[in-house]
């Protein structure tokens, strides 16, 4: 149902006032026909309710009615009205819902059990909220009330429901039931995998009774399920401090120890892995520096999965050789080939030998290594021609070529078109520098 707006409230006021005016006119006409009729009759009930109120005030009143309210769960008055829908006192209703929930839980109907426990919580939590605000709470009791004819002999007193203020004993009983409902609903949440809701309900139970062992146990179980070992250990320790012989808490304590050992082992492995990565990175940087190879990293390096610069065959042996991922670029056709591992001892011709000829080369311009020229871009933005028999180490250690983002890039162009492509490359670079 949509919330009542100011326009709707104004319309309601106008309609009520119109009907009241008609009723008042009819009443006045009738009164005028009666001799000696009293003057200044009272306003009709609806008009009296609205008299002197603004639209906002009327709107606020209407939104307190269960018929028009949009947020029932946040209104204590409505929750109280809902509680009145059940026969018996708040505690009796809470106990009834608890029993129904217990029956469902025993049948492993955890979702239904959760709902029953929740109904009981709704009823008793309202009483707690009222007392927290300083308000008094009441319950009804059967009491004998003296009837009109009780003075006559043989007349029995009439038994009626009498509203009685909750005393300390009644309040303690209500809180005991509410506490049980919270820990029972927490058990449902634990079975359903609602772990956060489980430890939340346990916390609410512990506010009512800091010595509730079930709340400590179930919150520890829930926390352990999501890997919050330290918090689970704290909850378990608090429970064992109250009863060190509690079997369920002892069992969860053993599970916490095992989980902590697994977590420690995992942390140790992760630390060792990171230490190994740092060590290998240092050895790689040392190998690059010793060979005089220049590298540079851009802001957005390409994703290459597991292809990367490394020492082979042993990354932790300084005597190993360097290996690079590489891309052979065919700029005139906008094609490329990826080489995952290019050892520093290998030359360009070694890779062109198994890559050429190319399947998309209809004109036969890339038929063999002899029919192409190879170039690499320098750090200054120019080009250097690469000999097909020169090792990669010799090319990279010359100082003019740099490895960008850990990838070696080689341009491959047909011999007959190489000169034109080089000139075009220079023109484009010059334009970029302007």
TrEMBL record:
<dbReference type="Pfam" id="PF18972">
    <property type="entry name" value="Wheel"/>
</dbReference>
<feature type="compositionally biased region" description="Basic and acidic residues">
    <location>
        <begin position="137"/>
        <end position="147"/>
    </location>
</feature>
<dbReference type="GO" id="GO:0030544">
    <property type="term" value="F:Hsp70 protein binding"/>
</dbReference>
<dbReference type="GO" id="GO:0006457">
    <property type="term" value="P:protein folding"/>
</dbReference>
<feature type="domain" description="Cns1/TTC4 wheel">
    <location>
        <begin position="314"/>
        <end position="425"/>
    </location>
</feature>
<comment type="similarity">
    <text>Belongs to the TTC4 family.</text>
</comment>
<dbReference type="InterPro" id="IPR019734">
    <property type="entry name" value="TPR_rpt"/>
</dbReference>
<feature type="region of interest" description="Disordered">
    <location>
        <begin position="137"/>
        <end position="169"/>
    </location>
</feature>
<dbReference type="GO" id="GO:0005829">
    <property type="term" value="C:cytosol"/>
</dbReference>
<feature type="compositionally biased region" description="Acidic residues">
    <location>
        <begin position="149"/>
        <end position="169"/>
    </location>
</feature>
<dbReference type="InterPro" id="IPR044059">
    <property type="entry name" value="Csn1/TTC4_wheel"/>
</dbReference>
<protein>
    <recommendedName>
        <fullName>Cns1/TTC4 wheel domain-containing protein</fullName>
    </recommendedName>
</protein>
<dbReference type="GO" id="GO:0005634">
    <property type="term" value="C:nucleus"/>
</dbReference>
<dbReference type="GO" id="GO:0051879">
    <property type="term" value="F:Hsp90 protein binding"/>
</dbReference>
<keyword id="KW-0802">TPR repeat</keyword>
<keyword id="KW-0677">Repeat</keyword>
<dbReference type="InterPro" id="IPR011990">
    <property type="entry name" value="TPR-like_helical_dom_sf"/>
</dbReference>
